[in-house]
Amino acid sequence: MANPPNRALLPAGLQDVLAPDAAHEAAMVEHLLGTFATWGYQRVKPPLVEFEHSLLEGAGAAMSNETFRLMDPVSQSMIGIRTDMTLQIARIAASRLKEDPRPLRLSYAGDVLRVRGSQLRPERQFVQVGGELIGAAGPAADTEVIAMAVRALRAIGLDHLSVDLTFPTLISSLYQALEIGGEQEERLRSALDSKDRNAVREALADASDAKRLFLALLEATGPAEAGLAILDNAALPQGPRKMVDHLVDVASRLRDAVPNLALTLDPVEYRGFEYHTGIGFTIYRNGTRGEIGAGGRYLAGSGFGERATEPATGFTLFLDTIIRSLRAPQAPPQVYAPYGMSLEAMEKLRADGTVVVAGLEPEDDPEADARHLGCQQIIKDGVPRNLAAEGSG
Amino acid sequence: MDGSTATMNSQEPLVLAVPKGRILKEAQPLIEAAGILPELDFNDLDSRKLRFATNIPHLEIIRVRSFDVATFVAFGAAHLAIAGNDVIDEFNFAEIYTPLDLNIGHCRLSVAATKDLIASENPTRWSHVRVATKYPLTTRRHFASQGVQAECIKLNGAMELAPALGLCRRMVDLVSTGATLKANGLIEVEKIAQISSRLIVNRSAMKTRPTDTQYWIRAFSDAVENNRASAAA
Question: How confident is the model at residue A382 (pLDDT cuts 50, 70, 90)?
Fold first, then answer.
């Protein structure tokens, strides 16, 4: 006979966050949003579910396979649970906030749900925290969101951060300018994806100019200092040249805006930037598996007639990765208030931020109860006193 | 710049994962040519140790099963590794870069079947085939591209027995000389991929320790070039 299912078992990729982690997570979210607020980013809160057609419109289509759907019995329409919040923010900007002055600065935090976890993030539900800057196209806007993200992360104690800059549309615009297509494009793409110089040479064996160019782009992948010099000298067609100049501009602005930031370039990266139209970036931390955050430039507001599309940039931070990288939170010391203590006396201590745990029944041995509950102190004669070490009394 | 300065600024050791067995023998000269001298135990195949120090401060070598190499790198437990593209393609981790073909460990991933079956069947009529393999994803992908649904039976060894004993119609495995196939009455039906070993790099490591990782890619690249040159001479 089958055993009855254990009620503690959760579906794959879901978990109960316990103490002290849950409080730590919430505090980090507030801290990050607090930093964004000081840069003028106002918090908005979109709903957990939306009509499927609105959630998956345009750029959202890329997440179709990751979206949980349900039937809304009220409207008789399909609704989807959000897999990402950026596009919700873009929708808000283009609809309810369309008359607000530009550039518009918005921030958000919330849980998202995905059908599948990824290899590195098996969690299917996780918290995203982010900021979006809508209605500004220049390099100063790109710089602002990256600088703000890094400074907010540093403020919660994350060190050894590095930012990888990319221009996801650069490669496809080069294909167009150099008339590379079909099977050759496929071979080149896979060579660039694996960062394999020899495979790039083979894919472009019969096109020496293109070969030199793509090898230079691959060569520029790595520390920004060296990479920028290579990009400056590369013989690029006009369209791609403008993209690269933008990248170079943002990189040099970032060096001033965020001192001591490790900056790398990856002009051939595009994976994970499916709906981006300009500079993309990924935030890593030396010693942490996976990405801390990612973002980039996109077009907000597709599907809204009159204000068709506007330039936007923003980023999302992955809170689970951030929490993993931070030192474990220190639980605050707790004071035990034996049964019968006046509420007023306890309130006086709590007003200073002291954690006061009240006894609910008359105790035989208040100190033993205090220890049992994990308290370090006990209130005696109205004053918190350290508990004697166990066994010594 | 030499190897010691390449890793000097980083607090954590850089970990290079190498596969046990077939590939390791061919990889050893390359590792040495790249300037890495593992501690003596590394060359002792009976050693129970799995982690080895090298002459480079902050560079460690770990020895793991060839199928696990890619997993170690994808999850950042190792930063660099040597792995066959059979394993790389099977796992298809987005977190792995494969910047260098090391030109060693050459063989092919092939489909094989018994002589009798081949004579009596017509695969163009198939909608489904049962295949014994260590490579279920690659196999499914290969047959799917031909419009055939492959039901994979995952075996970890003695693959050659499966078709002969009627467990399945096909097997997919690495073939180098074809001697094992022949000895078991099997014929190579088609080649899925040409295999060689690659130097692979974890994506985060490439981004957060670009100087270290690029130094080693270059060192191995030079070693491969030297190998090629001396083979041609």
Answer: confident
Instruction: Verify cis geometry, omega within 30 degrees of 0, for the bond prior to B57.
Output: no
pLDDT digits (tens, 9 = 90+) for A75-114: 999 999 999 999 899 999 989 999 999 999 999 999 999 9
Q: Given an 8 Å threshold on Cβ–Cβ distance, is B204 in contact with A262?
A: no
Q: Does A329 touch chain B (CB under 8 A)?
A: no
Dist CA B107 CA B149 (whole Å): 26
The structure tokens listed for B9 are: 């600024």
Cross-chain CB nearest to A162 (options B75, B99, B207): B207
- Give pLDDT, residue A260: 92
Chain B contact set for A291 (CB, 8 A)? 204
Q: Which residue has the higher pLDDT, A376 or B2?
A: A376
Q: How far is CA B58 from the centre of its chain?
A: 25
Domains annotated for chain B, with CATH where assigned, are: 3-105+196-232 (3.40.190.10), 107-194 (3.40.190.10)
Indicate the domain borders of chain A.
Answer: 17-160+269-331, 169-262, 336-386
User: What integer best gives the mean pLDDT of chain A?
Assistant: 91
The pair phi, psi for residue A259, each rounded to 5°, is -60, 150
Quick: pLDDT tens for B44-53: 877 888 899 9
CATH hierarchy code of domain A17-160+269-331:
3.30.930.10
B204 contacts in A (CB within 8 Å)? 284, 288-291
ipTM of the complex: 0.85
- Taking CA atoms, A204 is separated from A188, A207, A213, B66, in Å, by 8, 5, 10, 32
Residue type present at position A122 = P
Contacts A289 to B, Cβ<8 Å? 75-76, 204
